[in-house]
Amino acid sequence: MRYLSHTPDELREMLEVVGVESVEELFKSIPSGIRRDSEIAIEPRSDWCLSREFEEMAGATSSIAGGPIAATPVAFVGAGSYPHCIPAHVSYLASRSEFLTSYTPYQPEISQGTLQAIFEFQTMTAGLLGMEIANASMYDGASSLAEAVLMAIRVKKKPKIAVSRLNHPHYLQVLRTYLRPTAFELVELGTLPDGKTDYATMPDDASALVVQSPNFLGVIEDLKAAAEIAHSKGALLVASFTEAMAWGLLKNPGNQGADIVSGEGKSFGIGHNFGGPGVGMLACKKDFVRTIPGRLVGETVDKNGQRSFVLTLAAREQHIRREKAVSNICTNSGHNALIAAITMATAGKEGLREIAQLNHDKAVYLKNGLEKAGFKALFDAPFFNEFAMIAPAGFEKHHEELLARGFFAGLKLGLFLEYNDPRYRDAYLFCATEAHTRDVLDEFFAFFATLKEVA
Questions:
Q1: CB within 8 Å of 51: residues ≥ 6 apart
Q2: Other C-beta atoms within 10 Å of 277: how many?
Q3: Residues 81-109: pLDDT tens digits?
Q4: Residue 180 vs residues 47, 58, 172, 184, 229: alpha-carbon distances, Å
Q5: Closest residue by Cα to residue 428 from 416, 440, 444, 441
Q6: pTM score, whole prediction
Q7: Tens digit of pLDDT per residue, the chain (455 long)?
Q8: Within 13 A of 412's CA, how many CA atoms are on the CB side?
Q9: Domain with CATH 3.90.1150.10 in the chain
Q10: Does domain 74-84+350-454 have CATH number 1.10.540.10?
Q11: Alpha-carbon gap, residue 262 to 238, rounded angstroms
Q12: Which of 153, 145, 158, 133 has its CA nearest to residue 287?
């Protein structure tokens, strides 16, 4: 329900009916000793801070099974799914019936709203990633990367794909699954001591070099150097990402020479939701528009000269001959793409930059606090909002204790087979975003201070 305040004329009319001259006169019957005459000092709060305050108040006055409601668990983990504050207006707008009940926009004359929403998503995705073309979205970041690699194969037709081992392990699993029944070979590139990819071992007969930045260990890759090496060997650079928010602060892949960019856009207004769903982002140079999978919405004019939107390209099996189809992707993550578009549009360029800067600053604060607690950085390299740390002796036992207190303190890198290396045995991947408040971070650090006092 909208809040419509009364106008001065309406107030005056009501007061005349009641027979008083001002609103204050309505409260004369209340003794002055208990009546507040001054304004109530209310500090402005963001909607998520206010929600958190209400949760704390509820926890102090309610009980379940004889005990207080536990505080909301806090995870210092990213690894492909990052905690972000979601403004209330995003879910409100995205849940409007015009969008939520819409079907696939095959008939443009009755689907202009849906088509325009997709078009705006494509436009903002292309701008964010520094590319010329973006499609209507993919299922998620992993399938988006796999389809980006298939695009590169269609363009270059070379037998190998050079892929950084520092791509997200789950993305690599999906990519292997896609390529297993084909004749194409995946060549994994190793890791340098600074946590970046070793491009020097890239083969000459590869269709693409696939690099994630920031990579799975949190390190920001040198995409410009990767592009130069890929192009010198006649290959395309496929830049991947799991944290779309990073491009609010970092130089985008397109400006660093990437030919195709793919990744996960879940950070734009889409909650964790127990792991899914997300929204895959896929963008490329205009030269490759005929090889892009899924569908693409374009802008045109109708017979009356009015701005309108249509499905410009849909090179999939449902629309064209199977042998000419570039993908069997049969739809896009339409509603999640809408959520991402609303988030990007309402934040704007400056807003995204401010949020991204907060992400970085919170991560630096977390890293500094962990170093004081005895952790050591695995790599001395630039990062965005996550980083790898070597834990002090005995931390694994405290990890369980922290979990019982509501803190998930990092992801153990040794759990991933791709990182079955002595360097990662005691390494944890940590993450902080704008959703981690200063109070929560300080409370987390206080646990380690307690351990020192006991020791």
A1: none
A2: 13
A3: 999 999 889 999 999 988 888 777 878 88
A4: 47, 52, 12, 8, 26
A5: 416
A6: 0.86
A7: 456 678 889 999 999 999 998 988 888 888 888 887 788 888 887 777 787 788 777 777 655 443 333 457 899 999 999 999 998 899 999 999 888 887 778 788 888 999 999 999 999 999 999 999 999 999 999 999 999 999 999 999 999 999 999 999 999 999 999 999 999 999 999 999 999 999 999 999 999 999 999 999 999 999 999 999 999 999 999 999 999 999 999 999 999 999 999 999 999 999 988 888 899 999 999 999 989 988 899 999 999 999 999 988 876 656 666 667 777 676 778 999 999 999 999 999 999 999 999 999 999 999 999 999 999 999 999 999 999 999 998 898 888 889 888 899 999 998 886 666 777 888 999 999 999 999 899 999 998 887 765 44
A8: 12
A9: 74-84+350-454
A10: no
A11: 7
A12: 133
* C-alpha dist (Å) from residue 336 to 104, 127, 294, 394, 442: 14, 18, 15, 42, 34
The closest of 346, 405, 423 to 76, measured between CA atoms, is 405
C-alpha–C-alpha distance, residues 357 and 183, integer Å: 44
The shares of helix, strand and coil residues in the chain, as percent rounded to the nearest 5, are: 45, 15, 40
**Span(s) in the chain for CATH 3.40.640.10:** 88-345
Q: Give the span between the Cα atoms of 171 and 130, in whole angstroms.
A: 22
Q: How far is CA 347 from CA 283, 338, 352, 385, 436, in A?
A: 21, 14, 6, 19, 19
10: how many CB neighbours lie within 10 A of its CB?
10
Assigned token pair, 385: 């909002």
SS3 assignment, position 260: strand
List CB contacts of 334: < 8 A, sequence separation 6 or more. Answer: 102, 104, 114, 118, 136, 137
pLDDT score for 67: 36
Residue type at position 17: V
**Phi then psi for 188, rounded to 5 degrees?**
-85, 130
Instruction: Compute CA 219 distance to the chain's CA centroid, rounded to the nearest angstrom.
Output: 17
Q: Which two tokens stand for residue 247?
A: 């491009």
The total number of residues shown for the chain amounts to: 455
- Please, are residues 215 and 242 in contact by the beta-carbon 8 Å criterion? no
Q: Closest Cα partner for 225 from 250, 203, 202, 256?
A: 256
CATH of 88-345, one of 3.60.40.10, 2.60.40.420, 1.10.150.20, 3.40.640.10: 3.40.640.10
For 388-397, the CB contacts below 8 A with 24+ separation are: 388/195, 388/217, 388/218, 388/413, 388/424, 388/427, 388/428, 388/429, 388/430, 389/427, 389/428, 389/430, 390/426, 390/427, 391/426, 391/427, 391/428, 395/426, 395/428
